[in-house]
Amino acid sequence: MKFEVVDLEGGITKVTLAGRLDIDGAAAVERELNATAARNDRVVVDLSQVTFLASLGIRALVTGAKATAANGGKLLLLNPQPNVEKVLRATNVDKVMPIVRDLEEVAAVFLL
User: Which of 49, 95, 104, 111 is most buried, by the most CB atoms less than 10 A from its CB?
Assistant: First the structure.
């Protein structure tokens, strides 16, 4: 599982994940994701390169969202692949972490 963090304009932190967010993938990124989420109040997780999402992957994302919320912030999910988005919507994760399609939408959500 690939994990990359980039700071964008407007105080937005973009975390890019790539690979399978299964048992091994979640274990590989959960600590770093939570640490990044705890330090920032505007986090967007790019899921466009995540090919599979298991329950432990969902747990890692929800835990990150809670860490960001503890700072008074929000965590968004960027452009998940269709099979990953289907899992997110079926489990109502999209109600906790909004799904956005592009960085312009990310900026608009954070400005609200």
Answer: 49
* Number of Cβ within a 10 Å radius of residue 8: 13
2-102 maps to CATH 3.40.50.80:
no
Q: What strands, in cross-sheet order, belong to the sheet with 42-53? A: 2-7, 13-21, 42-53, 74-78, 99-100
Secondary structure class of 103 (helix, strand, coil): helix
Q: How far apart are the first and last CA of the chain?
A: 32
The pTM for the full model equals 0.94
Residues 36-60 pLDDT 10s: 999 999 999 999 999 999 999 999 9
